[in-house]
């Protein structure tokens, strides 16, 4: 089976498609000076854009791993945005962990696996 890679650089691909499954690189917000809600909204918008490029959408999410800089401080704010973004009845498998992220300004990063239609 073939593997398709999109938006690739020397280090990673933003999208990898294999056997009807879409894998996205970890997505963060664009404005690193923003709070958790805005960073979450921006990261989710990036996910939607990449899923669209791959030929699928958020209703086909299989698994999401959410990395938070500080789970005690940011869990509720991230969930408030997540809950309004995710359509009813399509919740993926999900894990949320606290993690030291690659830049100190990043408050949230999401890694997504989705199915193609």
From TrEMBL:
Top-level taxon of the source organism: Bacteria
Name assigned to this protein: Aminoacrylate peracid reductase RutC
Pfam families, per the entry: Ribonuc_L-PSP (PF01042)
The protein's Enzyme Commission number: 1.-.-.-
Signal peptide stretch: none
Enzymatic class: oxidoreductase
GO molecular function: oxidoreductase activity
PANTHER family linked: PTHR47328, RUTC FAMILY PROTEIN YOAB (PTHR47328:SF1)
Alphabetized UniProt keyword annotations: Oxidoreductase
Protein species of origin: Pseudomonas fluorescens
